[in-house]
Amino acid sequence: MISDWTVKEIREWLKQKPRLSHEEWNSLVQDPRKGVQKLALTYQRKLKKEEHEQHRLAAMWKWEKMCWERGYQGIVGVDEAGRGPLAGPVVAAAVILPRDFNVEGMNDSKKLTAQERQQLKKRIEQQAIRIGVGLIDAEYIDQHNILQATLQAMRIAIQQCEPVADLALVDALEIPGLKIPQRKIIKGDQRSHSIAAASIIAKTVRDAWMEEAAQKYPQYGFEKHKGYGTEEHLAQIKQWGPSPIHRRTFAPLREWFPNRSGEACDGSTEKDRQNG
After folding, report:
1. Is the pTM of this model over 0.70?
2. CA 76 to the chain's CA centroid
3. What is the pLDDT of residues 164-185, one digit of tens each?
4. What is the pLDDT of residue 230?
5. Residue 265 has what pLDDT?
6. Pairing verdict, β 90-96 and 75-81
7. Are the CB atoms for 121 and 111 separated by under 8 Å?
8. How many CB atoms within 10 Å of residue 35?
């Protein structure tokens, strides 16, 4: 009987019980001890949180299910990472998930920790039907603007999913020149598992790219801020000037270093220049 157990014993017991029977729950809530009542309340909140999470995950299949019902098979989710930073590439990913994909923990990459993204990346790579990645560098971004660079990265990523892909679900953008139908979904990385998977792949690929860049240009701290305009990063740009992977057309770089064709400091060492 629960009434015969200590509060500590009940706490450990609840950790092992994913669900209580009706009788067990009644015994718990009817126990007059304050410690037990507190455990019952905590357990109830845990169940509500789990139920809410299950509803959220189920709702994120809405767009895929609707498209599957209309006869589409290769539904590719498309998203990008890196439109806002002052340095590094913009990266797009395209992902086709199977219908039985394990969606536990899936979410917009920005709402996940780095560790959670890495864990989900491994699962996506193991279970996805197709994955494509497009990477467009800072030079292209400066020449064509960030929107055009993003769209080009998305086209490259989708092409890598051909010929399986027959419909694209795209986060907040319409991509000109696609061979397949597409659907723009606002906040798609929170509303579609396919787009969320693409956001995770794009973010992790870009973060890894910036961490490698940090080895070549250690004075900028790219491994910390990934090229975003943090106070630390701005101070480093002022000190060293822009590197070859900085976006010269982005503010404040375009104001600080207006002579793009001139001989500006590129942040490299003499050894870097000698090695080309």
Report:
1. yes
2. 16
3. 999 999 999 999 999 999 999 9
4. 98
5. 37
6. antiparallel
7. no
8. 13
Token representation of residue 85: 């930073």
Contact criterion met (CB below 8 Å) for 38 and 158: no
Q: Cis peptide before 252, with omega less than 30 degrees from 0?
A: yes
Residues present in the chain in total: 276
Any idea which residue has 């870009």 for tokens?
Answer: 206
Query: How many whole angstroms separate alpha carbon 206 and alpha carbon 222?
Result: 11
Strands (E), 159-264: 167-171, 182-185
Q: What is the pLDDT of residue 19?
A: 84
CA–CA distance from 86 to each of 33, 116, 234, 253 (Å)? 58, 25, 9, 8
Q: What is the DSSP string of 83-105?
A: SS-SBS-EEEEEEE--TT---TT
Residue linked to tokens 């630390």: 232
**Could you report the per-residue pLDDT of 251-275, keeping only the tens digit for each?**
999 999 987 543 333 333 333 323 3
pLDDT in tens, 137-159: 999 999 999 999 999 999 999 99
The pairing of strands 90-96 and 167-171 is unpaired
What tokens were used for 171? 């986060």
Closest CA to 89 of 154, 137, 152, 157: 137
